[in-house]
Design a protein that fits this description.
This protein has helices at about 65-75, 95-105, 115-125, 140-145, 170-175, 185-195, 210-225, 225-235, 240-255, 265, 275-280, 335-345, 350-360, 375-385, 400-410, 415-430; strands spanning about 45-50, 80-85, 110-115, 150, 150-155, 165-170, 200-205, 285-290, 305-310, 320, 325-330, 390. By secondary structure, it is an alpha/beta fold. The strands form four sheets. Strands 2-1-3-11 form a four-stranded mixed β-sheet, with helices on both faces. The protein has a four-stranded mixed β-sheet with strand order 7-8-6-9. A two-stranded antiparallel ribbon has the order 4-5. Helix 15 packs antiparallel against helix 16. The longest helix is centred in the middle third of the chain and has 17 residues, at about 240-255. It is globular, with a radius of gyration of 21 Å. It starts with about 40 loop residues before the first strand and ends with a helix.
Length: about 425
């Protein structure tokens, strides 16, 4: 495989949400770079994405996740070998495809996984049950809900990944606009921007437009006080996923029809790489990204304008969208026992406090709280109020994050809303056997 290596530069710089950025394919086999004089050491193999930087650059400063791994190495006397995978462009294999292949072949011990892969591997019985770990007892209930498959906790993140709209507040003020709460207010903002010469108000990519869909689809399901009953109705077939999804897809179609999103460009653009330069240059007033992008200068952590991160428009106001990536241990991993010990350390409250303070993110532990940067306070306030939707939920019979992303791409490629809804109906029928 191309660009598969140990300890790549800036390995975790984009945080857990970098999973959404990474995709690549190739032909060169991986090379074990562990020096020959250390072959007798206890080694745990870790597979994760890496930021798009020079893979040969020196990793001068360890990032937050790397620091927690170092904590585990010191406490347990093991050596963690990093294997990473990087995207070249949209034509290459996705990180998810590579992760599935590696996990099914037992190539590694620890994996950083997207929610769709967590669900697939968990359902296949290829991931260890982590519920017995001491550290698992400190998790927020939302983490357990999102990462429990067939009654087994199969993944634990180091941060709660929240997605929101990154907005150029200066441009909103210039044209006398308030930050939008509802779909109607959002459309009006886009109209004003376009009339004032901003041809495409929303910078988009092929990964994250499903966030709009989730905000509109599940605002009531997760915030209306009837969540369990509604999910039960979906899983039994009494309710249809397509009925929930339709408003979000119709909203995206409207954004495309009015030219507020460049569908052709979005379909082939990698996240941040495609829309980031125009947003940073003040040409595009709105982009969507994950929480950690506001903390790192490789994304949007340093702008020349006032930036705020708000929720997506919904009938219930600004709505954060929270998918759950997570660390997992292969059920048949060669070094499963040591990998479980490493897991217990890196998701301990001590390690999560270090991780959260370094990256300034929301912790999966109910015991760890960290102040966020000012730009993130609008999004953080909503989450602390308990207002959000899950972009992934292992309790749903149809996997959400990955499937919705793929069907949104069909819409970008010219499929009708009805055709997209038929795709959801097909997935639901298949899930019901």
């Amino acid at each position: 495989m191309k660009k598969l290596m140990r300890r790549g530069a800036a390995l975790f710089l984009a945080g857990l949400a970098a999973l959404s950025l990474t995709a690549c394919g190739g032909h060169e086999p991986p090379t074990n770079l562990v020096s020959q004089d250390k072959e007798e050491e206890r080694v745990v193999n870790l597979f994760s994405p890496m930021e798009k930087t020079d893979p040969n650059a020196e990793n001068v400063a360890r990032t937050a996740a790397d620091l927690t791994v170092a904590m585990a190495e010191e406490a347990l006397g093991v050596s963690v070998a990093y294997w990473t995978y990087t995207a070249e462009d949209y034509q290459d294999k996705t990180y998810d495809e590579v992760a599935l292949d590696r996990a099914r072949s037992n190539m590694d011990d620890l994996y950083l996984l997207n929610p769709d892969v967590i669900l697939a591997l968990g359902a296949e019985g290829r991931l260890m049950d982590l519920s017995g770990l001491d550290s698992a007892q400190n998790l927020r209930e939302i983490i357990r809900t999102a990462n429990t498959v067939d009654g087994r906790l199969v993944a634990i993140p180091q941060e709660v990944v929240a997605y929101g709209l990154f907005v150029n507040v200066d441009l909103f003020k210039r044209y006398g606009l308030s930050l939008p709460e509802t779909p109607e207010e959002f459309l009006e903002c886009c109209r004003v921007f376009q009339e004032n010469g901003i041809e495409t108000p929303i910078g988009a990519n092929r990964w994250w437009l499903e966030t709009f869909v989730f905000a509109l689809a599940y605002a009531d399901l997760y915030n209306g006080g009837n969540t369990e009953a509604e999910i039960a109705a979906l899983n039994s077939g009494e309710a249809k996923y397509s009925d929930y999804m339709r408003p979000g897809f119709e909203f995206l179609q409207t954004l495309m029809d009015r030219g507020y999103i460049d569908a052709e460009k979005a379909l082939v653009s990698e996240a941040i790489d495609g829309e980031g330069p125009d947003f940073l240059a003040g040409k595009t007033p709105i982009v969507m990204a994950y929480w950690g992008a506001a903390n790192t200068e490789t994304a949007y952590g340093k702008t020349d304008f006032e930036m705020q991160v708000i929720g997506f428009p919904s009938p219930r106001g600004q709505m954060p969208v929270m998918p759950m990536t997570g660390w997992a241990v292969g059920a048949e991993a060669e070094h499963a026992e040591d990998a479980m010990r490493v897991m217990d350390v890196i998701v301990s409250d001590e390690a999560l406090q270090l991780f959260s303070e370094t990256n300034r993110v929301i912790s999966p532990s109910k015991n760890v709280k960290v102040d966020c940067v000012p730009a993130l306070r609008p999004l953080n306030d909503r989450i602390e109020e308990g207002v959000y939707v899950l972009g992934s939920n292992a309790g749903m019979s149809v996997e959400q994050w990955g499937n919705t992303c793929l069907i949104v791409r069909q819409l970008l490629g010219g499929a009708t809303v009805d055709e997209c809804m038929a795709a959801f109906d097909e997935l639901q029928a298949k899930a019901m056997g």
